Amino acid sequence: MDFSLSEKEQKLWERAKAFTHEHITPRAHELEKRNEFPKEVVQKAFEAGLMNLHIPTEAGGPGLSLLSETFVSEATGYGCAGIATSIMCNNLAFAPLVIGATIEQLKTYVEPLITGKEPKFGAFCLTERGAGSDAGAVATRAERDGDEYVVNGVKCYITNAPQASLYTVFASTQPELKTKGLSCFMVPKSKATKIGHIENKMGQKNSVQSEVIFEDARIPKDCLVGKEGDGFKIAMTTLDKTRAGIAAIATGVAQRAVDEAAKFANIRHQFDQPIGRFQGISFMLADMGARAAAARQLTRYAAWMADQGMRNSKDSAYAKFFAADAAMQNAMDAVQIMGGYGYITEYPAEKLMRDAKLLQIYEGTNQIQRVVAGSAILKESANLDTGFHVKYDGRDAPVM
Ligand code: CAA
To answer: How far is the CA of 126 from the centre of ligand 1 (A)?
Structure first.
């Protein structure tokens, strides 16, 4: 088993880390006070070739792997989870199209957004007020009218929505069929697409989420991605991939918490020695370091599986919930180790803690990840022979 990166991967990883060091980490605190989309930094990330990595070469993209995307998300997440989210959100917006659209559709709708001088954005529109964890409960409707579809509904918490030129929208074409009646559409920004309430959040203030309102938005029938009824599976397959991206941002946050806390523990003297010499602190640092390292391996493995064409629902759920929990725990531990300095806004730790919280919530709460992983484990168990044959409640454990 080879854990080393290829030369190309190593270069991308180094480039993303250098970009973060120069453009993200030194500015993240000042920028978050503005509580707006970090346009300038995202423009630089686009120019540095750190966006839209998964778009196939036939549609103007670099056609890189999901594993490569995780290097950029971890590196940028180390500097600021909000800025990383703003940079990586095209991955989420366009992944359903890479999964379900034809190359012709990608060339028409996505290529012009990724090949200009300025970055253009897509936004992934699944969530609604009544359809969060229960993603199949989408009420937005798309009705066929001749050669067009007419889209009506309200999406919420949509990342990069105010910046987006193209919305990837999950809407019901046959509501009575529930998840099997959902379809996926590309809806270009128009007068019939409006931005509603913009959220004011506790953390990740360098990323923007808002409502998007579709009022009789007419789109050509070739804006349907895949077939009618494919929408839910396209959404789930997308999230299997992109949750590895969130896990990568979380790994970056978890690692940053280790590094800031360790730096402090080496500098801060109490009782005539650096506080890192006390086992109470060094044991905390050891646990934090192990969490960040484990999060990284789970993340890269989940991404690698997707790159091999393997179903990774369970493994991307593991990566997402483990890495997000690691980020939150490490951020809280960093605040604790840094004491008063940890709680004060001009030092790095309290922002890590506020930013980390969202990682446990968006792209499927960590409870939903455990639903996904738990149900996969139970399914696998039906085919599992542990070698120890015993009856429970008078029944044989099912053995294939
Ligand atoms: N791949 C392929 N097919 C899948 C699948 C997957 N990963 N997951 C489910 N399916 C299929 C099932 O096999 C089933 O198909 P059949 O009926 O043919 O057997 C069908 O889809 C329905 O599956 P379920 O019965 O499991 O569906 P459910 O309604 O119980 O929901 C769920 C499952 C996992 C809870 C899902 O609703 C879910 O993931 N919810 C969370 C939603 C979410 O993550 N939202 C995040 C929004 S994006 C965001 O936050 C981003 C941001 O802004 C940064």
So the answer is: 11
CB 328 within 8 A of CB 360: yes
Pocket test for ligand 1, best of 236, 238, 368 (most atoms within 8 A of CB): 236
Show me where the domains of the chain are located: 232-381
36 is catalytic: no
User: What are 182-235's pLDDT values in tens digits?
Assistant: 999 999 999 999 999 999 999 999 999 999 999 999 999 999 999 999 999 999
pLDDT at 295 over 80: yes
Q: Pick the catalytic residue: 74, 128, 211, 363? A: 363
Q: Per-residue b/e over 244-261, b at no fewer than 16 CB within 10 Å?
A: bbbbbbbbbbbbbbbebb
- CATH fold for domain 232-381: Butyryl-CoA Dehydrogenase, subunit A; domain 3 (1.20.140)
- Rounded CA separation 25/185 (Å): 36
Query: Is ligand 1 within 6 A of the CB of residue 240?
Result: yes
Band (400; pLDDT cuts 50, 70, 90)? very low
